[in-house]
Amino acid sequence: MPAVSLGPFVLDSHTFMVFLFLLTSIVMAMVLERRYQVRVEGAIWLMFISALVVGRLVFVWQYWDAFQTKPWSMLDIRDGGLNGTAAVVTGVLIGLIRYSRFAPVQRNVYIASIAVGAVAWSLSYSYLSLSHEGLQQRWPSERSFVHLAADKATPKRLSDYEGKPTVLNLWATWCPPCQREMPVLEQAQHSYPEVNIVLANQQENATTVEAYLEKQGLELDQVLLDPDGELMAFAQSKGLPTTLFLDANGQVVDIRMGEVSAATLEAKLQLLLEPTH
């Protein structure tokens, strides 16, 4: 699903929906607390934080090998790495425990607050899903881009990558998060030959891109040039890096706004490859 822009801030769609759920639940709790003179806000925070911590810990455990080279990165939740099932189960369990200890009026306020958050989440999910469908309908599968290789005269169409799952990373040499994830994508090209790992540079020329790759000692295949930033526009990307995940039929199945870590990329690739097994 597309990213969400809030003024100067850009959030991954999944992150936006989670925080929208939290925000609306907390606001409703504060309103009802004043009216009924009860306290439930702390319980909602406890449920949310517990779910976040457990979801992250399970994710780190699942992809421990990817964190071993940079152990401190397990604390960096900006990579979006979270085990959703563990987070939801934890949140529900904590919620039920707190619910069982509340007085009747508190229970009603608690349920009402969470219900409002759930409605907000559902509405945002529906809206973003429709936006994602619109993106797929206008996806430029037949658009040609310059392939940064020995023979630059040969254009590359996005449809040329159909037949295998594809990771399409939109990046630029001036972008610090893009720079940090380059080695991760380079390693993925070697580790996942069954997936097209494509890097589409945005709005820079061949000389700039080649000089950067050479300076950093990066040996990347499938580097495309998108001098007009068309892919950013089509993906409704509000910033870089943006990574799109396409199935073997060329359908966009997921979009990640922001830097990907080795663990996050591995998790996304496993999901992308699931239908092929």
TrEMBL record:
<dbReference type="InterPro" id="IPR050553">
    <property type="entry name" value="Thioredoxin_ResA/DsbE_sf"/>
</dbReference>
<feature type="transmembrane region" description="Helical">
    <location>
        <begin position="80"/>
        <end position="97"/>
    </location>
</feature>
<dbReference type="InterPro" id="IPR036249">
    <property type="entry name" value="Thioredoxin-like_sf"/>
</dbReference>
<dbReference type="Pfam" id="PF00578">
    <property type="entry name" value="AhpC-TSA"/>
</dbReference>
<keyword id="KW-1133">Transmembrane helix</keyword>
<feature type="transmembrane region" description="Helical">
    <location>
        <begin position="44"/>
        <end position="64"/>
    </location>
</feature>
<feature type="transmembrane region" description="Helical">
    <location>
        <begin position="109"/>
        <end position="128"/>
    </location>
</feature>
<keyword id="KW-0812">Transmembrane</keyword>
<keyword id="KW-0472">Membrane</keyword>
<dbReference type="GO" id="GO:0016209">
    <property type="term" value="F:antioxidant activity"/>
</dbReference>
<dbReference type="InterPro" id="IPR000866">
    <property type="entry name" value="AhpC/TSA"/>
</dbReference>
<protein>
    <submittedName>
        <fullName>TlpA family protein disulfide reductase</fullName>
    </submittedName>
</protein>
<keyword id="KW-0676">Redox-active center</keyword>
<feature type="transmembrane region" description="Helical">
    <location>
        <begin position="15"/>
        <end position="32"/>
    </location>
</feature>
<dbReference type="InterPro" id="IPR013766">
    <property type="entry name" value="Thioredoxin_domain"/>
</dbReference>
<dbReference type="InterPro" id="IPR017937">
    <property type="entry name" value="Thioredoxin_CS"/>
</dbReference>
<feature type="domain" description="Thioredoxin">
    <location>
        <begin position="147"/>
        <end position="274"/>
    </location>
</feature>
<dbReference type="GO" id="GO:0015036">
    <property type="term" value="F:disulfide oxidoreductase activity"/>
</dbReference>
